[in-house]
Amino acid sequence: MKSETIGDATFETWTPDEVEQAMKAGEIVLIDVRTPQEFMFEHIEGALLMPMAFFKAQALPGQSDKRIVLHCGSGARSEKVSRATVEAGLRTIAHMEGGFGAWKTAKKPYIGTDMSTGAPKKVA
Question: Where is the Rhodanese domain (predicted)?
């Protein structure tokens, strides 16, 4: 993980491997900042949705038990939203480098859409 200090805050950039390991260990809350349509088509199982268009840093849960890691499609939106949370006063925030695209490139499991039925399906 890469870490950057911004004032008295810490901004972290996690790899898909680090996110996957932390999710399996129950150490993080993964928040997807993509649109509802993107999320419904395919998403990381267990991720919560808080679209960038409606994102409110003050609505994020506390981080006493689990860290918050944001992600989007490529990493650009989640980095922008992460930096905005620092400006809003959060002292520690992280995002996943490369976003969902990097997750898929790394062959991590996710929930996709079965195009023949429209139903969700696990993709490995």
Answer: 24-112
